[in-house]
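Board notes, transcribed. Complex of a protein with 2,5-dihydroxybenzoic acid.
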Amino acid sequence: MQLNSTSDHAEIEARRKLQADLERFHCRVHQRDDAPVFTREPKVDMQSVHWRWSDLEPLLQRLGREVALAADGPRRTLRLHNPGLERGTTNTFWASIQVINPGEVATAHRHTANALRFIMRGNGAWTNVDGERYPMNEGDLVLTPAWAFHDHMHEGEEPMIWLDVLDLSIMHMMRATFFEPYPQPEQPTDIVPDAGLRRFGSGLMAPPGIRSAPTNPLLPYSAAMAQRALHEAAGLPPDPFDDVILEYRNPIDGGPTLRTMAQALQLIRPGFEGRARRNTGSKVYYVMRGNGSTTVGDRTFDWRQGDFMAIAPWTWHSHRGGTEESMLFQVNDLPTLVALGYYREEVEAVS
Ligand code: GTQ
Ligand code: FE2
């Protein structure tokens, strides 16, 4: 900054001097060279990133062969790391690909972080969440809400992989990290092993009189249910931004599945050219099948089956269809931004 008066200079010196005197009282005053508290718009450190399946697949194979279930959990995961951040995939959540080999048990524990799993490849693993035991099959979403005990065991023949997403950076920022191992490696299963699914799994009908619940009582959202719903929605006029998209919902109140993170399933068909939009909050996409492209800021990610994308907050992005119909699974932190009153969205003007 160009200083053009001696009074400016004196003011800067006065602030420096004051700060030096304030230090031992644990007080400060703003200095000219401090980073600004407010910016007109978000200044974002997180980067938008494209991970290719062609890179990830050999890494996952190596991980499964060379790395034992770690003591930390224990879980065997490949973390999708954001180069703009010290830790995490986005500024709020961590996405990892978990590898479990036949016969392995990922032992029971619980944590304050909310978690979800989306099955990428393989069949035959079970997860037990607070006594409810569910088989996990390709394309299923299974929730592990905050502080629920959970363990996974794999009884299938082939290694299995799934996407884990946890709101770890929110938990860390709130200084609310709690973790507890279960006293035994595996939890006992309830007499009715899948009660939540039996009560609420239709999404449309529920036991009489239930109007609220402290947390979402439905943990598994099957691939068959979600994809049937999406194909029904494909008969509607396309969404200008997303072509065909449906969110996973809490069957009791219609809100997001978890308090901090929402999930959606999307179809992008050949010829689709989506309008651009930007919003506060971050997203991660997993390409279940097909191909297409997403323009993010001044870059274009040409994605195909198995790829991942992270979209940074307040970054313009638009989707375009490829040569085949694509299905994408999405996780975002919009529920957190909405709950705090920080959600904003801007859409590209129609030309
Ligand atoms: O499966 O319980 O990717 O606790 C990170 C932390 C998975 C899990 C992760 C976890 C888990
Ligand atoms: Fe966990």
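The mean pLDDT is 95. Residues 1-34 form one domain.
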